[in-house]
Amino acid sequence: MSETEGARLFREAWIAGVHRHFPGEPKPGYVAPWDETPQWEREAAGAVAAQVRQFVSLSDGAAARLTREQKGRFVAICWTAQMYRHFTDPKPAYVADWSELPAWQQETDADIFETIEKSVD
Predict the structure, then answer these.
(1) Which of these, 35, 36, 83, lies nearest to 27 by C-alpha position?
(2) What is the pLDDT of residues 30-55, one digit of tens each?
(3) I want to staple 21 with a disulfide (CB 3.0 to 4.6 A). Which of 12, 84, 103, 104 is the partner?
(4) How far apart are CA 69 and CA 73, in angstroms?
(5) Closest to 109 in 3D by CA, of 42, 47, 18
Protein backbone atom coordinates (compact mmCIF):
# COMPACT_ATOMS: atom_id res chain seq x y z
CA MET A 1 0.00 0.00 0.00
CA SER A 2 1.41 3.39 -0.97
CA GLU A 3 1.55 6.26 1.50
CA THR A 4 -1.19 8.05 -0.43
CA GLU A 5 -3.42 4.96 -0.30
CA GLY A 6 -2.73 4.68 3.43
CA ALA A 7 -3.50 8.35 3.94
CA ARG A 8 -6.79 8.00 2.08
CA LEU A 9 -7.69 4.90 4.12
CA PHE A 10 -6.91 6.84 7.32
CA ARG A 11 -9.03 9.78 6.15
CA GLU A 12 -11.96 7.56 5.17
CA ALA A 13 -11.80 5.81 8.57
CA TRP A 14 -11.65 9.20 10.31
CA ILE A 15 -14.71 10.51 8.46
CA ALA A 16 -16.65 7.29 9.10
CA GLY A 17 -15.70 7.44 12.79
CA VAL A 18 -16.71 11.08 13.11
CA HIS A 19 -20.09 10.28 11.56
CA ARG A 20 -20.47 7.30 13.92
CA HIS A 21 -19.24 8.81 17.19
CA PHE A 22 -19.44 12.62 17.06
CA PRO A 23 -22.33 13.99 19.11
CA GLY A 24 -24.37 16.30 16.92
CA GLU A 25 -23.22 17.94 13.70
CA PRO A 26 -19.42 17.78 13.15
CA LYS A 27 -17.42 20.75 11.93
CA PRO A 28 -17.12 20.76 8.12
CA GLY A 29 -13.34 20.30 8.34
CA TYR A 30 -13.80 17.07 10.28
CA VAL A 31 -15.61 15.47 7.36
CA ALA A 32 -14.10 17.34 4.41
CA PRO A 33 -13.41 15.10 1.42
CA TRP A 34 -9.87 14.14 0.43
CA ASP A 35 -9.57 16.88 -2.18
CA GLU A 36 -10.28 19.52 0.47
CA THR A 37 -7.89 18.06 3.06
CA PRO A 38 -4.81 20.23 3.63
CA GLN A 39 -1.47 18.82 2.45
CA TRP A 40 -0.01 18.69 5.98
CA GLU A 41 -2.99 16.61 7.10
CA ARG A 42 -2.64 14.24 4.15
CA GLU A 43 1.04 13.76 4.97
CA ALA A 44 0.32 13.20 8.67
CA ALA A 45 -2.44 10.70 7.86
CA GLY A 46 -0.11 8.80 5.53
CA ALA A 47 2.66 8.67 8.12
CA VAL A 48 0.33 7.43 10.88
CA ALA A 49 -1.22 4.84 8.58
CA ALA A 50 2.27 3.57 7.72
CA GLN A 51 3.18 3.41 11.41
CA VAL A 52 0.05 1.41 12.23
CA ARG A 53 0.64 -0.95 9.30
CA GLN A 54 4.24 -1.54 10.33
CA PHE A 55 3.28 -2.03 13.98
CA VAL A 56 0.62 -4.58 13.04
CA SER A 57 2.95 -6.35 10.63
CA LEU A 58 5.84 -6.53 13.10
CA SER A 59 3.56 -7.88 15.83
CA ASP A 60 2.92 -10.96 13.66
CA GLY A 61 -0.77 -10.88 14.50
CA ALA A 62 -0.38 -10.11 18.20
CA ALA A 63 -1.67 -6.54 17.75
CA ALA A 64 -5.13 -8.08 17.36
CA ARG A 65 -5.01 -8.82 21.08
CA LEU A 66 -4.74 -5.14 22.02
CA THR A 67 -7.78 -3.50 23.56
CA ARG A 68 -9.65 -0.84 21.59
CA GLU A 69 -8.23 1.73 23.98
CA GLN A 70 -4.67 0.57 23.33
CA LYS A 71 -5.28 0.71 19.60
CA GLY A 72 -6.73 4.20 19.84
CA ARG A 73 -3.89 5.38 22.06
CA PHE A 74 -1.37 4.18 19.47
CA VAL A 75 -3.06 6.21 16.73
CA ALA A 76 -3.30 9.25 19.02
CA ILE A 77 0.39 9.23 20.00
CA CYS A 78 1.48 8.75 16.39
CA TRP A 79 -0.77 11.66 15.39
CA THR A 80 0.67 13.86 18.15
CA ALA A 81 4.20 13.23 16.89
CA GLN A 82 3.08 14.27 13.40
CA MET A 83 1.59 17.49 14.76
CA TYR A 84 4.94 18.37 16.34
CA ARG A 85 6.59 17.52 13.03
CA HIS A 86 4.31 19.78 10.99
CA PHE A 87 3.84 22.69 13.42
CA THR A 88 6.30 24.61 15.55
CA ASP A 89 3.57 25.55 18.00
CA PRO A 90 0.59 23.23 17.38
CA LYS A 91 -2.86 23.97 18.72
CA PRO A 92 -3.34 22.33 22.13
CA ALA A 93 -6.18 20.21 20.76
CA TYR A 94 -3.80 18.76 18.13
CA VAL A 95 -1.44 17.45 20.82
CA ALA A 96 -3.80 16.70 23.69
CA ASP A 97 -3.03 13.64 25.79
CA TRP A 98 -5.33 10.62 25.47
CA SER A 99 -7.13 11.40 28.73
CA GLU A 100 -7.96 14.89 27.42
CA LEU A 101 -9.46 13.71 24.13
CA PRO A 102 -13.25 13.61 23.88
CA ALA A 103 -14.78 10.12 23.86
CA TRP A 104 -15.84 10.47 20.21
CA GLN A 105 -12.25 11.10 19.16
CA GLN A 106 -10.94 8.19 21.23
CA GLU A 107 -13.46 5.88 19.57
CA THR A 108 -12.62 7.27 16.13
CA ASP A 109 -8.89 6.71 16.71
CA ALA A 110 -9.61 3.08 17.67
CA ASP A 111 -11.72 2.70 14.52
CA ILE A 112 -8.82 4.05 12.45
CA PHE A 113 -6.43 1.48 13.91
CA GLU A 114 -8.86 -1.37 13.27
CA THR A 115 -9.52 -0.24 9.70
CA ILE A 116 -5.81 -0.06 8.92
CA GLU A 117 -5.21 -3.34 10.77
CA LYS A 118 -7.66 -5.09 8.42
CA SER A 119 -5.69 -3.82 5.41
CA VAL A 120 -2.47 -5.55 6.47
CA ASP A 121 -1.93 -8.88 4.76
Answers:
(1) 36
(2) 999 999 999 999 999 999 999 999 99
(3) 104
(4) 6
(5) 18
Tell me: the pLDDT tens digits for 59-98? 999 999 999 999 999 999 999 999 999 999 999 999 999 9
Domain boundary assignment for the chain: 3-119
- Three-state SS for the chain is CCHHHHHHHHHHHHHHHHHHHCCCCCCHHHHCCHHHCCHHHHHHHHHHHHHHHHHHHHCCCHHHHCCHHHHHHHHHHHHHHHHHHHCCCCCHHHHCCHHHCCHHHHHHHHHHHHHHHHHCC
pTM over 0.70? The answer is: yes
